């Protein structure tokens, strides 16, 4: 798995429109916190108990159509997407990347996100419900 900076993800997505961009946060995070403009939501963990989604890899394959299709994953801070990426690789996906810093970035000293990194911090395109 390749680990890429949020701005690199934008460059890759622009250069290769066939790349599947997956936000693997919960549906609530995706819609209410916001998400990258062109991302598709497939939950790695599900609400309300944050259980692993047993259908994650099958859902990705259903949208991707093939395991060779490039996939970029993003989550809140870049950690959950690593686990999701490892699962996709184990499932047979051959071109998986993880967005470092995620959508909201790491915690700052006051335990807030969005002040030290992340998709929004870098001013990249996003939307919110």
Short description:
This protein has helices at residues 6-15, 27-33, 56-64, 80-91; strands at residues 2-4, 20-23, 35-36, 40-41, 45-46, 51-52, 71-74, 96-99, 126-127. It is of the alpha/beta class and 129 residues long.
Structural summary, described in words:
The protein is an alpha/beta fold and 129 residues long. Helix content is 29%, strand content 19%. The strands form 3 sheets. It has a 5-stranded parallel β-sheet with strand order 1-8-7-2-4. A two-stranded antiparallel sheet has the order 3-9. The relative contact order is 0.23.
The number of helical elements comes to: 4
Portion in helices? 25-40%
- How would you spell out the order of helices and strands? EHEHEEEEHEHEE
Total strands: the figure is 9
Mean pLDDT: 96
The whole-angstrom Rg is 14 Å
| SS strand fraction | 15-25%
Distance between the first and last residues' Cα: 31 Å
Summing up helix and strand content along with how strands pair, one would put the structural category as: alpha/beta
Name the assembly state.
single chain
Main sheet record: 5 strands, parallel
Unreliable stretches, pLDDT < 50, 5 or more residues?
none
Give the neighbour order of strands across the main sheet. 1-8-7-2-4
Identify the overall geometry: globular
């Amino acid at each position: 798995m390749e680990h890429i900076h949020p701005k690199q993800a934008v460059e890759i997505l622009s250069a290769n429109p066939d790349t599947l961009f997956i936000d693997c946060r919960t549906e609530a995070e995706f819609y209410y916190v916001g998400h990258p403009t062109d991302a598709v939501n497939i939950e790695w963990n599900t609400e309300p108990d944050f259980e692993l989604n047993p259908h994650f890899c099958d859902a990705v394959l259903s949208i991707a159509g093939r395991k060779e299709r490039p996939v970029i994953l993003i989550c809140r801070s870049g950690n959950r997407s690593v686990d999701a990426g490892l699962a996709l690789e184990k499932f047979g996906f051959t071109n998986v990347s993880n967005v470092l810093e995620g959508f909201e970035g790491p915690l700052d000293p006051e335990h807030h996100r969005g002040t030290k990194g992340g998709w929004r911090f870098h001013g990249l395109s996003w939307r919110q419900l």
